[in-house]
Amino acid sequence: MTTEKFHKAWPSKQYGGNPDDYQEYETDKDAWLIDNNTYEAHLELPDPKLTPRVLAAYNDDNGQAIAAEQPAAYNRRLRNDAELGKKIWAKGIRGFTGEARRIALTMPKHDAREMFLAIKTEYGDQSNKQVTHIVREFSSRSKSPNKPITTYNAEWREAIRIMHKNKMILPESYLVNLYLISLGTQYAVLENMVAVMPQATRTLAHVMKLALDHHAPRPLSNYIEPDTSDVALSAAISTLASNGYTIRKPGQCREQAQSATEQTNHSLPCSICSHPHHCSAECFRRGGGLQNMDKKQRSAWIEMKRKKRNFEPTMTTVTKPPTEFDAALSAMQNNDLEKQMDTREAALNIDIHNQLEEIKRLKDTIAADDINNDGTYVPFAQ
Fold first, then answer.
1. How confident is the model at residue 380 (pLDDT cuts 50, 70, 90)?
2. For labelling, which of 159, 252, 271, 371 has a CA lying 20 to 30 Å from the CA of 104?
3. DSSP characters for 211-246?
4. Is the pTM of this model over 0.85?
């Protein structure tokens, strides 16, 4: 690791007690201990002061022989442990600031084990403060309009990883619904589509993939801008040349009208019809440069000038292979259409049934009116 990287990691980069930074601090601290393997071994061993001196040899539960320890050897072991712990404490205390430093200073001086244990207890993975902060941040997470969906999905996966590490396993359906809510109204179509998806495909990974397709921008290469201006220009140029006029770009007459040396047939207004927006070289009337144009050529000339003056490109969309989102959206729309057809068919069947019942009732009424009390039929009036 280079010197620059060391300065960006703990203990050079101090930890102040922010729950968001605890994971980074824990990782840097573990790497620091591994680089100094004697430090790691010291922290993993129990405090020898808590273990009394072995007065007589014995065999432990595993059958291993434990030798008796002389007072000098015991005191030497305590002294070596204390000296190494003091060295680790001196280097570690510099890595804390703010609230975390105050917590570390409440522990016995020069005791590295107690110092690191206090920090872990206060800010560690399973502390009440850390868990409360994680749950609040995870539940209130929402996507800002300017944040790319790829970045937001990566942040969501990292938040779920931290939740799992803290033994908070949430149901898949809850995660999917919370994710859709956090996307906002911009993804309302996706939310409606997921609501009708089969349970087997309604997973967080699949919904995140659909969110990427939902917001994927159409590349500019999908659009082709057709250029048809040469069609009108070719007809106009041939007509102007046949009448002895110099070929000029549309609109050039207006720019050249300000020049005092401009020729009369290229000055504004038109010297033939007095139109303020074209010159005589572009006039359709007798004596004008475009007088020999037929109706079709005139329309082409006017359309060409309009496009040059206020160009609006026609965008032709190239067919793009459908994405998973497009397929799911199409399935949802087809499902809605089938439901609408089933509803209309049911309503039609009910209407036909009601009409048939009404016809039967009328027939029974007519038949009853045609019978006398004695059972004979009433003769039909001629």
1. very low
2. 159
3. HHHHTPPPPGGGEE----HHHHHHHHHHHHHHTTPP
4. no
